Amino acid sequence: MNGTEYVRQDRSGPARVVPLLGWLRHYDRRTLRHDLIAGVTVAVMLVPQSMAYAALAGMPPVTGLYASVVPLLVYALLGSSGSLAVGPVAITALMTGTALAPLAQGDPARYAALAGLLALLVGAIQVLMGVLRLGALVNFMSHSVLSGFTSAAAIVIAGSQVKDLLGLDAGRAETFPEIIASLWRSATTVHGLTVLVSLASVAGLLLLRRYLPKLPGALLVVAGVTVVSAGFALGTQGVRILTEVPGGLPAPAVPALGGSDMTALLPAAVAIALVAYMEGIAVAKSLAARSRQQISPNQELLAVGSANIAAGLFQAFPVAGGFSRSAVNFSAGARTPLASVVTALMVALTAVFLTPAFHHLPKAVLAAIVVVAVLGLVDRRSAVTAWRTRRSDGLTLAVTFVVTLLFGVEPGLAAGVAFGLAMFLWRSARPHLAELGRVPGTQMYRNVARYTGLVTDSRVAIVRVDGPLYFANAQFLEDRLLSLAEQRPELTALVLDASAISDTDADGAHALAELRQRLAALGVALHLATVRGPVRDLLGRAGVWQTMHGDGQVHADLTAALAATGAGHPNSSRR
Amino acid sequence: MNGTEYVRQDRSGPARVVPLLGWLRHYDRRTLRHDLIAGVTVAVMLVPQSMAYAALAGMPPVTGLYASVVPLLVYALLGSSGSLAVGPVAITALMTGTALAPLAQGDPARYAALAGLLALLVGAIQVLMGVLRLGALVNFMSHSVLSGFTSAAAIVIAGSQVKDLLGLDAGRAETFPEIIASLWRSATTVHGLTVLVSLASVAGLLLLRRYLPKLPGALLVVAGVTVVSAGFALGTQGVRILTEVPGGLPAPAVPALGGSDMTALLPAAVAIALVAYMEGIAVAKSLAARSRQQISPNQELLAVGSANIAAGLFQAFPVAGGFSRSAVNFSAGARTPLASVVTALMVALTAVFLTPAFHHLPKAVLAAIVVVAVLGLVDRRSAVTAWRTRRSDGLTLAVTFVVTLLFGVEPGLAAGVAFGLAMFLWRSARPHLAELGRVPGTQMYRNVARYTGLVTDSRVAIVRVDGPLYFANAQFLEDRLLSLAEQRPELTALVLDASAISDTDADGAHALAELRQRLAALGVALHLATVRGPVRDLLGRAGVWQTMHGDGQVHADLTAALAATGAGHPNSSRR
């Protein structure tokens, strides 16, 4: 039951396609015992959470149970992680509700069909990404974007639950200003007894988590409050309860909806597919590192995508690998997907036999579970770290946070990714330049702006360019180096230290050729030193390398380049 | 009259704001003679071209003259180039027509007002970019994008003139498929006499350009065909002629249009502002290099932006610095903006006194001028060079070309820029890695995949990462380096040559810290060598540098790093 204990995963033969077979090759009784304990532990946590997240997604609570049976079995068959716990999670539930509410026009049957279609789309996108090996796409969401997004989404989620906690007659609201306005308008409809139930639930959840963390807090609160609610008939006194919860498991069916719905859901499906995969892969990787297992990102996309397709076929809504449940699963000993099979069977038993027990469960309890679960997601420390490490990272986080809060989850995610990429591109369009001098008595060269006592020569400038030389910065570099040469009438040679030029393109090659000609017109020879292989290849294809090589202007390192310019000896000075 | 002769430009005092004052400080009679000759030469070229481009923009031909008076004077006052010839140019004329036609609903008065508003918007955007010093934004349009865009636009422009060349009754068409379809539908309305006029005009233009390049071909063809048209009364025989051309110059007026028109024109205005600036700055820079003058990109934005505002106020349409006219201006001796003042005065005299002479000018002649002018813009050589230099550059060019041809100029430009950036980002998300070995008998290290006979040590891997380490590739690098360590059980140290890591961010620092821990779990120590200053600073703010420095894991160069790992001596082998 600790991190050093691990189960070998065999990925040869048929296990390449169905990893579960690989796990079973080395399965033993001890592993089974761990998986049984972990599976039951997660199920006890998952039953109340999945119902709460279903409500957050705007779905009947029982569909949360549906989302926690077949999708888990499918993931167990195909997933490459031994500890990931798949099921409904808070953020994708919020995104699901946001996407569906405007399309469903208040019709619950249409809402459910749209949810299924959305899950199918999410699954199809994930499977497609896995087949095309596009898992790396999610890397364009930086930690800063994810952190700002998650914090804002957690606040929106918590805010959206306030109406249920207070028993208000308020409609669904998607953004923070809408939520505040909606709560303000309906503030007079606050229902005292519901507030009491909410306070008791929140207090129970927090106290149990704090003082008895080993106990299944959510389940105990659900059970306790349900007993009280049934005993005092709270449902007849204005407290909203679940009333009839249908029992049994759903039969598979393809949601019957048209192409226009599919088009309307597509942007949300892409966003959910990325976020759901991102949440799962992050936790799966960190757990796999601790148990020395291997995660295959593209296999994970196939597995979680198939789980979502199953969710779509079994009247559920999009699922993902959940962060907190996976951590519980891991620390309870889960090392193979058999744990998820145990969880799925437990949830199935609940759905078949125990739904009547939820009749008297107040909705406010589910809201309390959601609020307590997501408040831990607000991450102030990451914001401070990002801002301190790099202003642009902090700004990206802030932009994502504010846009998500004010305009919703998808605009927030899109704005964050776009802003982060724009900052990166803008920075790469104006790369750092360092003028170098020689460390006396050595062949090492350092930035004259950072070190003192370096040997320089007024006739030879040594400049290092830090970054790829490509279309967006080629003109900038040409202008900068040319104006440097123009400002120094004594200059006879400019040595470009290309060691940090990692890449180039046709525009970069063209700019180098032009720079060489324009410097020559000023009587300055351009030399290149330490050109990296890929850059050299491209300069060769553009014809620039041959010309410069023919003129003895390309060199293996700075020492050779300076020898060619004849610098560093007669006129050299220290600064 | 040659490139080495140059006029000093003084940019101190009030000349910082109005560069013309700086030119005049060093003005002499010789310069005046050159500017007079150049100004007249350009005017003779500009009068027929500006009328032809006005027709291309869907405006009355006389507005081409309007666009060539006040905007030129404004540019002469503010421009930093001594040779740029501003006025109507083919590509922005096409973009103007494309933007206005759907909004004007066939009402010529509304069309003219929209054209003025568009010029005002273009000017305002350019002035704003100049004030905010955003001239570098145009660098995101690579040569490949511009080349593909220009070639496709030239084909669309030439295609759009075919109906006038053949005298067809065809409507305006914006994309290549539309043009073909429109010509096909109206093919039966071809007018024989108009075809004859067109053939004569095209032949005249091409023959004069080929055999008498010093003569003003367009003007001669216009004069000759007009005389024939008047003598034989071609206008009464079905050849479309300009008929009444209003004389005089327009009074300034603000186009009276609402905010909704402004919103509708904004995307086109942004595209035209960028393209117009790009065309001008490119030619201005290349000419300035030859006359040893200095171009200030942000001053150019202010100048051409002000010229466009003047165009908007004087009933014209967007203008730009033209490529071919500027080259003519330069080779005729223009070295100061006084040449443009001369041109503007000549065009003004034409507008006031000579418009009755254009009564009998056939529209087909203007179409012939446009076609002959733009066919030289189709650039096959750039396409071949781009494809050969770098596949992604060739693809970018092809995407821009095809989208421009099939969907129009703005989608083409947007698709090209987006595709080019996506290729750059995708490449930077999977940076090149090189495993290094030591060149025997030296302290130089080279890529083992490119060189043979290098000294390596199976216990110490040296890996160079070529590219910035940032959010989009941090995970990729961590995974790649970790799997390298996992595949080599003998490994005790991994030395990361950071000399080509030009930049990093919070995610990069986090990935390094995580990689270090995960390698340590495998018994492999991570060492960094040759970390560039900006990267070191950031790792310091993230706290990674201090930890690694404390453990003796950061080194000035590879030699020091290898000494710290104890590698390269006992067990080393050649490969």
Question: What descriptive keywords fit this protein?
Answer:
six-stranded mixed sheet; 2 domains; 61% helix; membrane (chains A, B); Transcription Regulator spoIIAA; 575 residues; alpha/beta; STAS_dom (chains A, B); transmembrane helix (chains A, B); 10 strands; 23 helices; homodimer; Sodium-independent anion transporter (chains A, B); STAS_dom_sf (chains A, B)
How would you characterize the overall build of this protein?
The structure is a homodimer of 575-residue chains. The first copy, chain A, has 575 residues and is an alpha/beta fold. Chain A folds into two domains: 17-212 and 224-231 and 258-393, no CATH class; 430-574, STAS domain (Transcription Regulator spoIIAA, 2-Layer Sandwich), CATH 3.30.750.24. Chain A has helices spanning 19-25, 29-56, 62-66, 70-78, 90-104, 108-131, 143-166, 176-185, 192-211, 217-231, 259-291, 297-313, 323-331, 338-354, 363-375, 380-389, 391-407, 409-429, 471-487, 506-521, 533-541, 544-550, 558-565, and strands at residues 86-87, 320-321, 432-438, 445-447, 455-456, 460-466, 493-497, 525-529, 554-555, 573-574. In chain A, the strands form three sheets. A six-stranded mixed beta sheet of chain A has the order 4-3-6-7-8-9. In chain A, helix 20 (506-521) links the parallel strand 7 (493-497) and strand 8 (525-529). The radius of gyration of chain A is 30 Å and the shape is elongated. Chain A starts with 18 loop residues before the first helix and ends with a strand. At the A-B interface, helix 16, helix 18, helix 19, helix 20 and helix 21 of A face helix 16, helix 18, helix 19, helix 20 and helix 21 of B. Chains A, B: The chain crosses the membrane at residues 36-56, 62-78, 85-105, 111-132, 144-162, 182-208, 215-234, 264-288, 337-354, 361-378, 398-426. Chains A, B: InterPro entries: SLC26A/SulP_dom (IPR011547), SLC26A/SulP_fam (IPR001902), STAS_dom (IPR002645), STAS_dom_sf (IPR036513). Chains A, B: It comes from Micromonospora lutea. Chains A, B: Residues 450-565 form the STAS domain. Chains A, B: This is Sodium-independent anion transporter.
